[in-house]
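Before a colleague's protein record goes any further, I have to sign it off. What it holds is a sequence and that sequence's fold in token form. Would you go through it and say whether the fold makes sense for this chain? The record follows directly below this note.
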Amino acid sequence: MNRISQTTILSIGAGFALPAFAQNGAREPLNDKPNIVLIYADDIGYGDLSCYGAERVQTPHVDALAANGVLFRNAHSAAATSTPSRYGLFTGEYPWRRKGTQIAAGDAALIIKPGRYTVPKMLKEAGYTTAAVGKWHLGIGDTNGQQDWNGHLTPGPREIGFDYSYIMAATGDRVPCVYLENQRVVNLDPKDPISVSYTRNFTGEPTGKENPELLTKLRPSPNHGHDQSIVNGISRIGFMKGGKAALWEDESIADNITHHAVRFIERNKEKPFFLYFGTNDIHVPRYPNERFRGATGMGHRGDAIAEFDWSVGEIVRALKEAGIYDNTLIIVSSDNGPVVDDGYMDEAVKKLGSHKPWGPFRGGKYSTFEAGTRVPFIVHWSGKVQDGTSDALVSQIDFFATLAALTKAGERSSIPEDSRDQLSAWLGIDRDGRDYVIGTASSLTLLTRDWKYIEPNNGNPYNKLTNTELGNHPADQLYDMRSDKGEYNNTASQNRLMLRFLKQILEEEKRKGTGLDL
């Protein structure tokens, strides 16, 4: 990605300037090769953690990392939904550049092609042992809908660089509701094989739509589509039969994946490792362990946030007990912004009260407005980061180039230009960060530290099912983020020069390729 010249920016007025050292910040040499732990939450919004201002839910373990690390207030996922954000995270390429990176179906093939250079592959080259534990949602196998769930599923995490994997087969609200360890279903009884379909049900298998009396734990919200096969008293998207011994219990998902993440730390404490820990909280269906039910007074959604914080605490405890906490870079973030009702009647709306999952911003998951991609982002590395809050503009798309700089691995020519070295920002030295970042939902957005542009879109401006403002509008939108964080005052007609400049940047970006053919 080419840098914008300082002269060009200054020529269109104040309020938009390049960081003084976003690419080559003055930082102390980093001689150690730290362990790297990425704790990647699901659907946790900017305002869902107490260190970001939440009052009705407390997240002391996350807060402790933030208190001794860098808490970012202008950090962004690559997209406003799960699959494309994860694609951008691991590839360093904006997901909107490539077809097929939208929300993956439960029987989707692997979205990241095996030949692709990825973050875990790069870290393996640097001598790291790599693991993916928890939510995956990037597909598996080589053909949509053709997976043999009863054998070894390939390609999968190993083919894109993970030495070990213990993952949810798809995502919580989609079948098959089983875990895969190193790409085989866990606890599968060969006498009870798994069959999956996303087109028709299997004879004799109950569904939430036809058999609501069997929904003993959660019922689907009307018209969301979560009314097909029933697993653990909760109906899902898609149809499944068999695999009874392998099915998960939703109330034990956090315990299970956290256990496997901790076990990976314990087994690999003597050598550098990279752990991607994708939590399921607080994605639907939300059904936290009974230890956390009632913890917040906000129903299952709030209690799932408390459960997420417990998982963070367990990871930290394991690192300390292994004696490697001080030499571990810990990153806590989320794949996209929040959604309250996303398909199940779990009282999340009723009990929300004064809590604002989106913080001071507008929109949420699925939205082009700011709460769609502005997410919590905390970087902790004992003695290596300058503690405090940072308003640096950072993006998860930069994981690739930043971790390459940290570990001195990877050839720059092999890393997509979209990904930039933001190590100085992560360490708290550079307080400006990127000059701009591009987001995607139903439209593309371009955000600088002061301005935000949203492309025209003729889609619905509001999603009634999720009660979310999507930000779609048939005309250009331009917001001054210095004074209008809520994006209510469209200044496109008053700031035509800035509008034209940002549109030009976005058009130039859209014309670019990545230089990668995969």
User: Anything to note?
Assistant: The chain has one domain: 36-426. Residues 36-426 form a domain with the Alkaline Phosphatase, subunit A fold (CATH 3.40.720.10). The CA atoms of residues 141 and 155 lie 5 Å apart.
